[in-house]
Amino acid sequence: MCRSMGMPDVPANCTKVKMPRNGLHIGLLRPSDSCRAANRENGDTRNMSVERHRLKRKIEQLKAYQGRHSSFTTLYIPPTKNLTDVINFVKTELAGSDNIKSKANRKNVQDNLTAILSELSKIGGIPENGIVFFFGIQEEGGTNNEIREIIVPPAPISQFIYQCGREFVTEELENMTKPKSLIVIVLIEGGKVTIGYLRGKHIELVRDEDYYIIGKTRAGGQSAKRYLRIREEKMMEFFKKVGKMLNDLLLDNLDGVDAIVLGGNTIRCQEFLEKGDLDYRLREKVAETIIPVSVIDETGLYQAVKEASRILKETEIYAERKAWEQFMEDLMKGMNTVTYGKDEVMKALHDGRVEQILITEDLAETMDNLYDEAAAFGSDILVFSNQTESGAQLKSFGGLAARLRW
Prior knowledge:
Layout: E1 28-29, H1 34-38, H2 48-64, E2 72-77, H3 83-96, H4 103-123, E3 131-140, E4 143-151, E5 161-165, H5 171-176, E6 183-189, E7 192-199, E8 202-210, H6 221-250, E9 259-264, H7 266-275, H8 280-283, E10 291-292, H9 298-311, H10 316-332, E11 338-340, H11 342-350, E12 354-360, H12 361-364, H13 369-376, E13 380-384, H14 389-396, E14 400-404
Parallel strand pairs: 6-9, 9-10, 12-13
Antiparallel strand pairs: 1-4, 2-3, 2-5, 3-4, 6-7, 7-8, 11-14, 12-14
């Protein structure tokens, strides 16, 4: 019978195929090429943001397919599984499929499983991050079209999944497309707080709130002291509310928070650190540098992220910014080591001159073949976010540029 189930854990004592350090760059294998591709070894020249982008595009294609009954078969194989055990499992399922009553369903399941067995016999071992099979039969215009997609993901598969149905199971791969790093940006001014998340190169506004703080007074004597005392009390209440807000937002995902960057009024930020009720575990993640930002709102958040990329050099947004600054520096100097425009970049790529391709997200979605061509010439690809200043500037150059080897 076709069903969803897991396999018992067994040691992975089979011979491992040779894979690039972060999994197959392309991530996608044509069934006829699976054995050769699984054993091909080359340098890892593309970053994880590119891998995620390609995987996201492939997932969108897989989710667009619609089958009938049990015409789609999904098989996730983690790297911890023994290839022989997986082959025996598929053979058992194939034998059990004889009990499927519907002739059409039975044929679809058997065709898919037979094709999967054929591919498993070629790979020689489970790849470093595991492997996923999306095999199916789709009816279009009275004809049956075979779907044969094999994916070696950029991160390890966590569980064995076998399922037949009308659609493919993509949830685990979808999780791999989400950046794991989380930078929290907190902007503080008297009575005003804006909180944003920086994941990879994407910025999300989380909180933008105002708290009433009594203003300063020109009165003198006892009145001035009373106003000052009330104002300081309100400011303390505000700091405590901000601390509680951050605790509520972040403590449940403490390990997922890489850093907290404070910005806005630098004096108020320092007071918040000293007087707010921020949990000590979060306090340890606060960056030493406080970013001066004059506007405490979503616009200020983008300004802070721009400056934060200088502080947090391990972030993807920093890599994007540095690449763009280097490109512009070479361009302004009139050097022949940069070019831009689709025709110019593609010609340089085919001549083997391209070291790194800079491309915007929206344009990357229309140029799937670019990844394969870049890999063939050993060229790196950096996908620029549509949200960042660097991405906007690249878009003004047509969305495609390159740094050249010579």
